[in-house]
Amino acid sequence: MDVSVSKDNKYSMDVTIPCYDTDASFFLKPASFMDLCQELAYWAAQKLGFGYDDLKKEKTAWVLSRMYFKYIAPPKWHDDVILSTWHKGPDGPFFLRDFQLKDRDGNVLISATSSWLVIDLQSRTLVRCHDIYDGLVSTSTQCREDALSPACGKLVMPKGIDPEFVGRHKISYSDIDIIGHTNNARYVVWAMDAIDYRVSSRKRIKDLKINFNKETVHGESVDIYKTVRQTDDGLVYSVEGIMDGKSAFCVEITY
């Protein structure tokens, strides 16, 4: 993986958008953007001493808790682009990491901000690791620039609208990631599949927000519900996954 680092602690990699990461209109899929971000985030964290291998020694792991990204001019198949990431340090229980996707002329195509937590791999509970990994809180490793602000807040389904039951998804091999639970991008796949195809295949996403509320693993089933409403910002779909009566995830997608 060919990654460069700038003086302001931004890590960047060149990407040529492949056909399998695009939709029927040749635009980069939201889940595919998340896959790219995840890979670069892991790589950058590893270089700074708090990556996957570093946390594994302490029997801990990074999990994505919230993400918010704005599509400005999403790239298409064959486009050569540059993805950059930087971490902004702690914010309450979260650690913030931002992303920007730019074209070769420096124009911003997608901006994103993400909120991460560290969990104990055995108990699956939250770990406060400020004392363990000094690099996380050291300003020397941070870049305080905002790709997108504010960070993603708490999402709930809109009140006053009865959600429509879309279907039940049984978590299978293709959903599971390297720490044994559902990969963050898969929830976005489920959400996009819940939206009217006439909308998702023809309209361009403006922005997407997601909360990951409850870990899900192989063999479990998630009931998926959606609402749709017209707002001043555009056509807004809210999609929620419910498991055992609790929210596993909630997504808000604006067209």
Notes on the structure:
The chain has 255 residues and is an alpha+beta fold. 17% of the residues lie in helices and 40% in strands. It contains five helices and twelve strands. It has helices at residues 30-47, 52-57, 134-137, 184-194, 197-200; strands spanning 3-5, 11-16, 60-71, 80-91, 94-103, 108-120, 126-127, 164-170, 207-212, 221-231, 234-243, 246-254. Strands 1, 2, 3, 4, 5, 6, 7, 8, 9, 10, 11 and 12 form a twelve-stranded antiparallel beta sheet that branches. Helix 1 (30-47) runs antiparallel to helix 4. The chain is globular, with a radius of gyration of 18 Å.
- String of helices and strands: EEHHEEEEEHEHHEEEE
Biggest sheet record:
12 strands, antiparallel
Give the strand content. Answer: 35-45%
> Strand tally, please?
12
Overall pLDDT: 94
Q: What class would the helix/strand composition place it in?
A: alpha+beta
Distance between the termini: 34 Å
Radius of gyration using CA atoms only:
18 Å
Q: How does the overall form come out from the CA principal axes?
A: globular
Number of helical stretches of at least 4 residues: 5
Poorly predicted parts: none
Range of helix content: 10-25%
